[in-house]
Structure prediction request, 341 residues.
Amino acid sequence: MDLQQYLTEAAAVEREAVAAFDAAPDAAALEAARIAFLGDRQGRVKALQESLKAIAKEDKPAAGKRFNEVRTRLESVHSARRSSLDHVTSAAVADLTLPARRQWRGAKHPVTLVIEEIEGIFRELGFTIALGPDAETEWYNFGALNFPPNHPALDAHDTLYLEGEGLLRTHTSPVQVRTLQTYAPPIRVLIPGYAYRRDFFDASHAPAFMQIEGLCVDEGISFVDLKSTLNLFAERFFGAARTRFRPSFFPFTEPSAEMDVQCGICGGGGCPACKGTGWIEILGSGMVHPSVLEAAGVDSERYTGWAFGMGPARIAISRYGIPDIRILYDSDVRFLEQIAE
Ligand code: DAH
Prediction:
């Protein structure tokens, strides 16, 4: 075979193989074409390789070079065709009527739901949101809030002290002072945030927990404003027919009161949710102590105010009938999904 004949044959093999590969309608047809052209034993490319032996010595480099080109090109045309057929095949096999895979979209945590609902109620009454730092100074956490040094009220507020001056705030009340220092009355703010105590993690306590603080300071504010606002809140949030205020003590309020709402589950008759009392304790409150106003630089002769603090996790467990507060911190989606809205 002379060089010219060889080159003609190589061109024919190349042309026919490309046409066969491109025309193959499916994987089986492509495989048949592959065997016909690129097959190891009887393939046309193999034959082309065999005929190299018959080429005159001086023409061998040119013939060999052409052979390599043809083989390389056919291999790549074949593999390109195979991957495009793979694509077609899998689309054809996919069952488009199958139900879609379910997606986990995430949802709001029960405590977040409670906080947002409370914020919504107070927003309508003209309250805005205020925030403060979790790491506080002793003065903001205690001193400015009228805790005398060594007073027994401090016992309930044992916390983690940070290196240097700071401590983790034991309540959101220090943000009352920060707000009063920053803005002039009239002030109506709601202060959600974490508080920290040296408490054991048990069914009703967590060492880090959310609180919501409320503060209203203006001229002429009295206990009537406290009671009527909190009663309205209880009615809106709990649908509570009745509330009751019990005298209490906080260093930063005078007088102070705890507010209970009538248990919505038993209607006041007594059940496990209210521990048989018919009432659920929801917050501490009182008239802002004049020395707190003075510590924050507010004239206590001119201005008066009321405040409250509550634990939204406690409210969430009574609202959703959750037996153990730790469930709220477990991040177990099987539980969270039951409450997600
Ligand atoms: N700071 C109090 C606590 O964590 C809760 C509290 C009670 C806040 C009465 C108030 C209030 O603003 O008036 O125990």
User: Anything to note?
Assistant: Residues 256 and 286 are 4 Å apart (CA to CA). The beta strands are 128-129, 135-136, 167-168, 187-196, 208-218, 243-250, 253-262, 279-288, 304-310. The longest strand covers residues 208-218. The chain has eleven helices and nine strands.
